[in-house]
Amino acid sequence: MAQKLAGLMEAARKRPAGEADKTFPSETMGSTSAAAVNDAAPAGFKSNVVFETMETNLNSQPALAGKVNGSFAFNITGGPAGASATWSVVAKGPSPSVTPKKMEKADCTITISDENLVALASGKINGMSAYMSGKMKVKGNMGLAQKLAALMGPGPRSKM
Question: Is the pTM of this model over 0.70?
Fold first, then answer.
């Protein structure tokens, strides 16, 4: 996954100005629904690809929602020009979803910078280190936060 993430990040850097809100080329996307999320995703955030990956994983692995069995609210800080964004990830029930909107009652709320979420997903930092150093704040179900790695897919990162 880290290699795929690196390729997607390189493609994003090579885009001409003003195209940051368009989807990545279809050959790099695992599902059309992930591309649909990207259309509504906050423009310019590096972590958008992480949420696309989560949605692709939920759609391609139906048992994953049952394994995680929880909902996440992500507060992403440090985006373009200091912007913030919110994402909701529902990984339970028959209709899991990943949407760029605020969730009122999440089982687990994670606050993390755009840069640190990408580093976490690519395995450059691990969840426990991010939490202990204050790079990631977790409210609610801490056990559920440890299942976040399953949503991000297989890769070199350690378990959260």
Answer: yes
